[in-house]
């Protein structure tokens, strides 16, 4: 009997000890856990997705919230594009180019327009003004895959015209009512030099432009080589020879090659109410704004293909310094209207 009472007393004693241990454990551990939970609450909450841009300003790095930065940037781009639109309308009015007529400056020309009725997008294709890039994008919108376009031997323009037939003037004007329309302009003299280098200086064998280059050499080389004996060994027209050919073509009323026809005759921009006037100088921003405005971000992206043999802007002084003052003035006379309409 005494043994049982002793065992019960021992059991009761252990129970008391365990309860004390549990109590002290709870008193010590629970506050620590609460502190840890509060401290790590920031990491347990849903994360607000936000990206940042690091910008160097006066040697110091600062962090910019990207959504706010992009919204601000888009506002700046929108204002710049609106300034261009107003400038073009103003100059078209002052030069009398917004009135219909029978010459190439006053007769609406729908020939080079591509109309995407599905995506409500209209583009006037100006050669040597990001034309390769946007021909690619229009072919993507037409349903061609990037893999197919990379492998295809068919000229991109031919592929595009299979899906975007040349519109009539009436159909084009109707499409303008509910579409985003754009044209990409380039400084006339920059575009002219790019055309010369791409189509004549680096012309491929057995092409139309290689043949044209040979004709220019035959007609103008003797006159030019009297000034520079080294021309006997050059197999393509020099830039001054090309300019002489161009000036004579205009003087004789000949139709110019599409790669150096003035934009004001090529797209007759004063005859249409374009939504966006993009420039090659700000092409990345202008494309980004255009694609966003058309809600095509999931289909196409800003492109810059066919950059050519080096940046043309870096070659301006080298080539134009070869021209005489008279040739420079004659070129300005040919391209002055486009300069006044597009260059702000």
TrEMBL record:
It is a single-pass type II membrane protein. It is found in: Golgi apparatus membrane. The chain crosses the membrane at residues 21-39. Its EC number is 2.8.2.-. It holds the Pfam family Sulfotransfer_2. The keyword Transmembrane applies. The keyword Oxidoreductase does not apply. It comes from the Eukaryota. Keywords: Carbohydrate metabolism, Glycoprotein, Golgi apparatus, Membrane, Signal-anchor, Transferase, Transmembrane, Transmembrane helix. It is an enzyme of class 2 (transferase). Belongs to the sulfotransferase 2 family. This is Carbohydrate sulfotransferase. It comes from Molorchus minor.
């Amino acid at each position: 009997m005494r043994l049982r009472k002793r065992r019960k007393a021992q059991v009761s004693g252990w129970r008391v000890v365990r309860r004390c241990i549990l109590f002290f454990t709870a008193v010590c551990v629970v506050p620590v856990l609460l502190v840890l939970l509060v401290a790590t609450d920031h990491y347990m909450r849903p994360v607000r997705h936000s990206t940042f841009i690091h910008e160097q300003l006066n040697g110091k790095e600062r962090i910019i919230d990207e959504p706010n930065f992009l919204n601000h940037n888009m506002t700046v781009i929108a204002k710049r594009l609106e300034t261009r639109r107003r400038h073009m309308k103003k100059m078209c009015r002052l030069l009398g180019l917004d009135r219909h007529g029978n010459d190439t400056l006053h007769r609406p020309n729908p020939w080079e327009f591509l109309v995407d009725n599905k995506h409500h997008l209209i583009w006037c294709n100006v050669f040597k003004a990001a034309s390769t890039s946007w021909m690619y994008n229009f072919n993507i919108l037409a349903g061609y895959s990037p893999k197919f376009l990379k492998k295809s031997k068919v000229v991109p323009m031919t592929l595009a015209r299979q899906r975007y037939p040349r519109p009539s003037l009436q159909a084009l004007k109707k499409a303008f009512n509910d579409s985003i329309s754009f044209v990409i302009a380039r400084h006339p003299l920059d575009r002219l030099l790019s055309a010369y280098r791409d189509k004549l200086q680096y012309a491929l064998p057995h092409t139309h432009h290689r043949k044209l280059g040979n004709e220019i050499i035959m007609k103008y080389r003797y006159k030019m080589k009297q000034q520079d004996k080294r021309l006997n060994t050059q197999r393509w027209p020099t830039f001054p020879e090309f300019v002489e050919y161009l000036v004579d073509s205009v003087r004789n009323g000949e139709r110019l090659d599409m790669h150096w026809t003035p934009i004001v005759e090529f797209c007759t921009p004063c005859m249409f109410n374009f939504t966006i006037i993009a420039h090659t100088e700000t092409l990345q921003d202008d494309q980004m704004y255009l694609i966003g405005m058309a809600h095509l971000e999931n289909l196409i992206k800003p492109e810059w293909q066919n950059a050519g043999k080096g940046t043309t802007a870096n070659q301006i002084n080298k080539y134009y310094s070869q021209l005489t003052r008279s040739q420079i003035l004659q070129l300005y006379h040919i391209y002055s209207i486009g300069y006044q309409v597009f260059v702000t």
